[in-house]
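Each letter names a residue; the fold follows as tokens. Both lines appear below:
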Amino acid sequence: EEEIMGILEWSLKYPFSEPGWGPKFVLGAVVCLIAAALEHIPYAGKILFFLITLLPFGYAYAVFRNHLQGKGEGLPEWGSWGSLLQQGFFLFLIGLAYWFLPGVLYGLGQQFWQEGGISMFLGVLFITLGVGIGLVASFLLPMAVAFYATQRESLTAPFQWRSIVERIWMVQGQYFVSWLASFVIFLALLYVWTQIPAVGWFIFGIGLFYFSLVLASLFGRACQAVEKV
């Protein structure tokens, strides 16, 4: 347990752990800030937010892949932006596949709930199913991305669920702590984004990039630990 908490503490410090982290972190934070600012534009804002955040997510994937390979040194160079966009887009596709069903169920549940009457019972059922399946999807997703990274980045690899569950079971303690920590940080970011007026978007933009790096480090090490079992 002490070792797991040590890994968590190390990952929280990871983005600032090596000399030269400043320009690399600032660049990613600025990109996320631009995305958060443009998100407020009517109609086109959400599309711009999505397109721009592909870059830092592609960068976080590079961090994740480094940790999978046992390279725990500081932040990597930014490299080719085209490659980062591509990797960010593939991560989006994997995430979309995992979140599609719970998203549809939750959306249907909200629609039934708003209709009132007996439909509210269906609303509660669908919302509960959506949240439950969504939590399971979020738990499986990091190891699915690890499979994607280690299986020559084949888009079929993230859906080998039996192998994914078996590997999670091998490092269940470290993996669960990583997932729980990521869930808490995500809720904190969501609160900042929705509840703090004026400066919320600014804190969210920087926090989003930091959050992606911490997760990449945490789950990279957790998934890489499978090879040591």
Remarks:
- The chain has a mean pLDDT of 90.
- The chain is about 80% helix and 0% strand.
- Helices lie at 2-13, 21-38, 45-68, 81-115, 119-150, 161-170, 172-195, 200-224.
